[in-house]
Amino acid sequence: VIVHLIHLYRKDHDLIGSVARATSDLVGDFAITVIEASNPDTIVGARHGCPLIIGLGLDENYFASDAGALIALTSRFVILKDGDVAQITAEQFSIFNQELNEVKRKITTSNMTASNFSKEGYRHFMEKEIFEQPEVVRRAYGDYVTGAIKAALFEKSNASDLGEIKHIQICACGTSYYAALVAKLWIEHFTHIPTSVDIGSEYRYNTIAKQENSLFIAISQSGETADTLAALRKAKEQNYIG
């Protein structure tokens, strides 16, 4: 259906214009890339709700849904935002909104390595992750000890002091939801701050009264869980702390 819609607009527009107009007609979440047989050196991509990034290499550029797919090829990425339409060739890239006004997006450098996405001799990734736990815990605690976590997460917070927090709302899905339930017990035990935990797929559709000075925490193993991200967008509209 999407291909036919793009083809319809292609009669009056170039490829990127056709993709921009076609995707503005779509309802729902998507991330697409399009290539024409007559111009195989150019690829156009667009996203709404689903992740899409550009990987920047040396005389080569890529589209992917996740940086992990490209980490063996490049460590430099551009993360597209909802409504972005991008065009890449081997030498350059450009990004537009759906009105075809050019926009700028930040280039980020990842510190991940290819080893993060290989089994490294283990039978499967689950086994690898089990044996990695001591190092993962060490790195996580290291960030808390240095204050990096607080500086990174709360420097733009609308609370002048984390001591103002009166309630914590956590959203997660799947196994992250079970981790959130454990976190609720720890948080309430050590901080005495009332904490609520909801499944992302339910929170995003429920009418939940936000409490004053409430902190919102979203947990996702991949960082791209659709329902959790939708819950996070809803939380931003409700002006949570964090």
TrEMBL record:
Start and end residues of each Glutamine amidotransferase type-2 domain: 1-91
InterPro entries in UniProt: GATase_2_dom (IPR017932), GlmS/AgaS_SIS (IPR035466), Ntn_hydrolases_N (IPR029055), SIS_dom (IPR001347), SIS_dom_sf (IPR046348)
Gene Ontology CC terms: cytosol
Segments traversing the membrane: none
Lineage, broadest ranks: unclassified sequences, metagenomes, ecological metagenomes
UniProt-listed PROSITE patterns: GATASE_TYPE_2, SIS
Gene3D superfamilies assigned: Glucose-6-phosphate isomerase like protein, domain 1 (3.40.50.10490), Glutamine Phosphoribosylpyrophosphate, subunit 1, domain 1 (3.60.20.10)
GO MF entries: carbohydrate derivative binding; glutamine-fructose-6-phosphate transaminase (isomerizing) activity
GO biological process: fructose 6-phosphate metabolic process; protein N-linked glycosylation; UDP-N-acetylglucosamine metabolic process
Reactions catalysed, as given in the entry: D-fructose 6-phosphate + L-glutamine = D-glucosamine 6-phosphate + L-glutamate
E.C. no: 2.6.1.16
Domain SIS: start-end pairs: 158-242
Keywords from the UniProt entry: Aminotransferase, Glutamine amidotransferase, Repeat, Transferase
PANTHER family listed in its UniProt record: GLUCOSAMINE--FRUCTOSE-6-PHOSPHATE AMINOTRANSFERASE, ISOMERIZING, GLUTAMINE--FRUCTOSE-6-PHOSPHATE TRANSAMINASE (ISOMERIZING)
Record's protein name: glutamine--fructose-6-phosphate transaminase (isomerizing)
